[in-house]
Design a protein that fits this description.
By secondary structure, the chain is α+β, with helices and mostly antiparallel strands. The chain folds into 2 domains: about 260 residues, 4-Layer Sandwich (L-amino peptidase D-ALA esterase/amidase); about 120 residues, Ubiquitin-like (UB roll) (Roll). It has 11 helices and 15 strands. The protein has a 6-stranded mixed beta sheet with strand order 13-12-11-14-10-15. The longest helix has 23 residues.
Length: about 400
């Protein structure tokens, strides 16, 4: 059941503070506390050039018993070498000393400009306030604090009935540009008050990420800092011990719904985006082949600019399908739809297609592109957006 966005999760407290790391007069540092005995699962960017906080967060997660997440916006602490690693570890050490936990029980996260050293002094000044203002009701506050080029905060909540009672799932995410799969600059934090073993929680998260955060793209750039975290506080007393159980399926579905909705919010808020676009490829030989074609279309600057212009230039879409690297593609069998308008059949322009019908679809704020490869049972859907003038402006001026 959908509940009000930002519904508190028992056993998870949050706070935000204006530390002045890069932004002035706005919250830019977040602390999330998980109740003792809670569990944490995470997935991270697959970019080989990953940021210092990603390296440290992975190390600490492997040791278990995570109690705190420490997140800053405005500075990615990426491309900073050993200096960045020292800074990430020092911020964990600072928090651990003041919160009374082990340094390895803190996971650091950063998002913002790449290549700038992360100042540690603001953390030392902010941590006491972060600890003293922890509150379960602060989801809206942290949703804003983690934003960079985002124009709106992203918050989603669900309530789930399990055999032992009701539990809550609430999540927030940030991301607007540099968004592409393999943990697309995107950060996401989802929490539940269910009691879930770490191995089950990790599987639940991985199942949720593939059709959500790993099925979106704004610009084809996989960030250095991506991370998605799933926390289970256990405060409700409702135990979920297996992903296959009825309760496991119900909770897993709710987590997946929260992730899907957050992922869609990211695409809607794509830098300069004016349109949400769903690209569905069907009858491919495999799921992987369908995803490959969908992403080739989604990453095409020519397709994305045509979408912005509301121009049904279907040749650009067909050209992207043709260069997706699909062996033995029978182009004469390919069919292409914009919404419910068939544009291409038998590998060429459909005889019944009119430019007016295509343009009417392209002028909508949400557009469905459907591609039938007539090769098998594989299918996949990818969410993307258009490229507008503002995308260039936002990214050209990002560091100014």
């Amino acid at each position: 059941m959908t509940t009000a966005a930002g519904t508190p999760v028992s056993g998870v407290r949050l706070s935000a503070f204006a530390a002045g790391i890069r932004y002035k007069n706005r919250d830019d540092l977040v602390l999330i506390e998980i109740a003792e005995g809670g569990q944490v699962a995470a997935v991270f960017t697959r970019n080989a050039f990953c940021a210092a906080p990603v390296i440290v967060a992975r190390e600490h997660l492997a040791k278990g018993k995570i109690r705190f997440l420490l997140i800053n916006s405005g500075n990615a602490n990426a491309g900073t070498g050993d200096t960045g690693l020292r800074a990430a570890r020092e911020t964990c050490r600072l928090l651990a000393g003041m919160a009374g936990c082990a340094m390895s029980q803190v996971m650091p996260f950063s998002t913002g400009v790449i290549g700038a050293d992360l100042p540690v002094d603001p953390f030392a000044q902010a941590v006491p306030s972060l600890i003293s203002t922890l509150d379960e009701a602060n989801w809206p506050k942290i949703a804003r604090a983690i934003m960079t080029t985002d124009t709106v905060p992203k918050l989603v909540s669900r309530s789930v009935e399990l055999s032992a009672g009701s539990v809550t799932v609430t999540g927030t995410a940030k991301g607007s540009g540099m968004i592409c799969p393999d943990m697309a600059t995107m950060l996401a934090y989802v929490a539940t008050d269910a009691a879930v073993p770490q191995v089950v929680l990790q599987q639940m998260l991985e199942n949720a990420v593939d059709p959500s955060f790993n099925a979106i793209t704004v610009d084809g750039d996989t960030s250095t800092n991506d991370a998605c975290v799933l926390m289970a506080s256990g405060a409700s007393g409702c135990a979920v011990d297996s992903i296959e159980s009825e309760d496991g399926q119900a909770l897993g579905s709710a987590v997946a719904e929260v992730c899907r909705e957050l992922a869609e919010m990211i695409v809607r808020d794509g830098e300069g985006a004016t349109k949400l676009v769903r690209i569905h490829v069907e009858h491919a030989s495999t799921y992987e082949e369908a995803r490959k074609v969908a992403y080739t279309v989604a990453h095409s600057p020519l397709v994305k600019t045509a979408l912005f212009a509301s121009d049904p230039n279907w040749g650009r879409i067909l050209a992207a399908v043709g260069r997706a690297g699909i062996a033995d593609l029978q182009i004469q069998q390919v069919q292409l739809w914009l919404g419910d308008v068939c544009i291409v059949s038998n590998g060429g322009r459909d005889p019944a297609y009119t430019e007016a019908a295509g343009k009417a679809v392209m002028q909508q704020s949400e557009i469905d592109i459907r591609i039938d490869l007539a090769r098998g049972d594989g299918e996949a859907t990818v969410l993307t957006c258009d490229f507008s003038f503002d995308y260039v402006k936002i990214n050209a001026e990002y560091r100014s």
